Amino acid sequence: NAGVTQTPKFRILKIGQSMTLQCTQDMNHNYMYWYRQDPGMGLKLIYYSVGAGITDKGEVPNGYNVSRSTTEDFPLRLELAAPSQTSVYFCASRPYGQGNYGYTFGSGTRLTVV
Amino acid sequence: GQQLNQSPQSMFIQEGEDVSMNCTSSSIFNTWLWYKQDPGEGPVLLIALYKAGELTSNGRLTAQFGITRKDSFLNISASIPSDVGIYFCAGHRSNNLFFGTGTRLTVIP
Q: What is the average per-residue pLDDT within B88-97?
């Protein structure tokens, strides 16, 4: 199993550009998440999904969009990149079930907006 | 948002020493987790705690879920160089993991 795979690993965007951060998992997990981590800080939830076709906002959703058309994939879209979106983005997944809170994280996408 | 305060922010210790770090919250969580993050990687789960008062070990790591459900601590015994990294506590509630600000551990050989 590859676990949670994120692409790209690094990206530089100009202000106003758009991009999609890709995330895929091969563990058949129902739940998937997008977090951002600013320097010296913990992770904050952007969006999450409890299954294909279902998404919901987290703590910091402004400026982002998501979709979940399959169990495996959960892309994160930035429509109009802003410097405040410079961060490291982590995708995570976990299986359905009470007590299954051991999230599996990808290795991250480091995004710089200039 | 939720505030999870971790202390200390950073630690420098000699190889072989024991380490203790803790995490406090202004609100209750039903699940506490401890993660370790290496440079350029995502967090990796170390220990999960599901019940107030629970004490759980994983090798040289021991963690406890506070009775008030507002705190947790992590101990690492006999530290080794590969323990270097950032340790995060996290509380789980309502489909969200709320992370602490992390404790950066440096182990001096």
A: 88
